[in-house]
Amino acid sequence: MSKELSWPKEKINILLLEGIHPQADTVFEANGYKVRRLPGALSESELLAEIPGVHILGIRSKTKVSEKVIEEGRSLLAIGCFCIGTNQVALKAGARKGVPVFNAPFSNTRSVAELTMAEIVMLARRAAHQSASLHRGEWNKSATGCHEVKGKTLGIVGYGHIGPQVGLLAEAFGMRVFFYDIEKKLPMGSAAQLNSLEELFRHSDFVTMHVPLTDETVNMISARELSFIKKGGFFLNLSRGEVVDLDALRQALVSGALSGAAVDVYPEEPSSSKASFTCALQNLDNVILTPHVGGSTEEAQEEIGKEVSTSLVQFLDTGSSMQSVNVPEVRLPLLRDTHRVLNFHKNVPGALSEINKILAQMDVNIHAQQLGTKGEIGYLVMDVAQNVSRSVKQSLDILPVNIKTRLLF
Fold this sequence. Notes:
By secondary structure, the chain is α/β, with parallel strands linked by helices.
């Protein structure tokens, strides 16, 4: 296939932060790209100093990519979130600039599910209490308050990628499983969907959170919801820190309404391992606290490194936006002896007609074309004759609806 790259691959500036797994480098380098790394997360001011000239930015959960950063990233083509969450990125601002954001929605689900199940067992056996007492030099060997999880009921809030895996593991332990989700979901195993949070909480000995961070999920668990859990029940949050009122959770634990809790995520988390950590749940023997490590296994991080870098390479090499969370998903098979044009534009009535009208006036033969729309954004991928591709790009660049046009090859 005859290709003329809009940018030689060696000139693509790929910047990875926060100790992303080396598997990402392997994928990029195997496809002809070079990677630059900086240790740890960057503050907004530090990122603003780095972002000019960066084409691909890779982050994890601690680096915040604000609208200001995206505005300054004039060369920015795409952002890779090497994690599940994308709330650390100004997604709408990225879409408005034609910058797709990719994440890894599947790669660490098993790791989170396994930790969830392990903590359910540890809570049921009062292992946190007993570990704390042993650290104080106290030997309190007793079966009082310790239970098997077999026959108990688990309530799962959020039944996306992680919830079903947690449910299947819980069933293998002999638990009954209910779940609540705002959408109708196909149950895995013998799980049953309930119609409200209150109904789920009232049925459950254990409640575990696995929801994304949205406007609807911020503080969705308050003292009211916690009061519905069975007396002596347990609560777990391995989703996002902002979804739970920690002061209300502490009160439920101190009062004895809840027997224990396990929390892996927090509304405010330190930006580095050197920073101190404070939380309303500290110094409670019946609470297991972990430092946002639900997906932090070597296996998960390696798979995340591979998954996100592969999506970014596909976007760089073919224009595929599959797995993007903020722009339309478009994938057009490659054609021989053509040049590919990628166009982000405002999703307004008549946009595609306007584009095709100009191409018709230029007497351009479109060999293949695919359009996707999402909210305010339209993404058009098309293959045209090699001798007119630059003229096509120049014509699209001046259209009022144009956001960004890139000549891929």
